[in-house]
Amino acid sequence: MEDWNIRAMLDSLEETGVYVIEQNTHRLLYFNRRIKDVTPDVQLGVKCHELWEGTCSDCPLLTIGDRETSHSIHYNDPFGKVVDIIANRMMWNGRIPAFVIIITPHKLNYEEEQGLRQIEKIYSKSLVTVFNECIIANLTKDFYVNCQKDVMWTDIPERGNFGAENREYSRRTIHPDDVDCFDAHFSRESMLRIFKSGKNQIAKRLRRKMGDGTYHMVEFTATRTLELGDEYWCVLVFRDVNEEYLLERKRDLDMSQLATAARVAYQMLIAVNLTQNTYQMLEYDRFPTKKAQESGCFDNLIEVGISTLDPDYRREFEEKFSRKALLEAFSRGEKKVTMEMRQMGDDGKYHWNSTQAVRVANPDSDDVLQITMSKDIDEERQQQEENLKKERMATVLLKDALEKAEAASRAKSDFLSRISHDI
To answer: CA 97, CA 88: separation in Å to the nearest integer?
Structure first.
């Protein structure tokens, strides 16, 4: 076959790129039209690794060794797809050792097709595991397809008019007290309005009727699919979060009971995030000193607290309750920091209070959290002082009695000594 016929035939391969490089220098000796289409700057004599810089990891020459041919499969940037790359040894013009490189779109073999089908099955099954239903809707054209459903969809079509069937769905499945909220977020009109405002996802927890007739707390999520042009398509799913919701309710109840008990025992409760340097007053109305704001910067709160203390206690307070001191204490493994002090009240008098900062576990982030609890201990201190006064009086009386007893004993001894002498 004439040389020009071979070249014409190779140029007619629309999807197959063919080029020849010199074995020693890797300079291009030939390339067909497909290579030119993909790389318009290609020229004879250019080294392939300079022309296609960054793609050498795909090159089959890396593994050819002493063999006559080598084959690799890679995503190839110049071609923009997964390709088969085959290299064969040859003699160019019968005298120049060379490699001919053939690049073709990769076709799945039987094993790869089976693997892809398996992945699709796993993906489908994962949707069933994670989500209880999945609806794809074109909000613009008011059309939907139900890709996954439960028994509550028995009389609702698998596809059709989204707006009308969505209203029927909410009437059948959503708890009566949650219908208005569902319509405000997941009706066709509401989702179009929300998506047009720039949001790409809507999520809400609502009560939904399940197959056994009971209502479960579920999380509805609608996500706009951005890759489908100007039309507003979305995927609407829900997952059952009832167990999680019940655990949260129990935890909230426990926390509420704990907070109630703490409010009874303490006049001031402060939630503090030491990492963020912030605080929030949880209980403050009954505390005798009200100089601080309800919330704000924790460092500022400490400064206000120091200004209200008896000067004799200010240094100790700062050394224990400054943000730096608390972070260091908690990093050492201490669970709480405590102190009793005298603090000026709004009545202009000093009051005794007991304050403790307790570290709080934080499973949601690495931020260091604490609760500061303070209570008035004037009565306790007064009782302690009265008891101390009584102890001191008892000590004085006892000492006086001992001294009188000793004096009497000495007088008796002196009397007996004189009598003995006289006799």
So the answer is: 11
Terminal C-alpha separation, the chain: 165
Q: What is the DSSP string of 209-233?
A: E-TTS-EEEEEEEEEE-TTSTTS-E
Residue with tokens 């000594």, as numbered in its chain: 417
- What's the rounded Cα separation, in Å, for the pair 276 and 290? 23
Is-contact 283 273, C-beta < 8 A? no
SS3 412: helix
User: To the nearest whole number, what is the mean pLDDT of the chain?
Assistant: 83
Type of residue numbered 235: V
Q: Which residues of 43-75 are buried (b: 16+ CB within 10 A; e: fewer)?
A: eeebebeebbeebeebbbbeebeeeeebebebe
Helix (H, G, I), strand (E, B) or coil at 7: helix
Tokens (6 digits) for 22: 């010199």
- Mean pLDDT is highest, among 55-69, 72-86, 318-332, 364-378, for 318-332
DSSP code, position 160 = E
Give Cα separations from 237 to 115, 124, 177, 188, 204 (angstroms): 27, 14, 21, 15, 11
Residue pair 347/376 in contact (Cβ under 8 Å)? The answer is: no
**Exposure of 176 in the CB half-sphere (CA atoms within 13 A):** 0
Eight-class DSSP state of 69: E
Q: How far apart are the C-alpha atoms of 375 and 343, rounded to whole Å?
A: 11
**Do 73 and 57 touch, CB atoms closer than 8 A?**
no
User: pTM for this structure?
Assistant: 0.43
Q: Are 139 and 188 in contact (CB under 8 A)?
A: yes
The partner residues of 48 in beta bridges, in order of sequence, read: none
Residue the block writes with tokens 């609890």: 373
Q: In this structure, are residues 112 and 121 in contact, taking their beta carbons and an 8 Å threshold?
A: no
H-type alpha helices, 71-223: 110-130, 162-173, 179-186, 188-196
Q: Helix (H, G, I), strand (E, B), or coil: what is residue 31? A: strand
346 confidence band (pLDDT: 50, 70, 90): confident
- Per the DSSP assignment, residues forming a β-bridge with 369 are 273, 360
**CA atoms of 111 and 101, how far apart (whole Å):** 26
Which has the closest alpha carbon to 268: 292, 252, 251? 292
pLDDT at 1 > cutoff 50: no
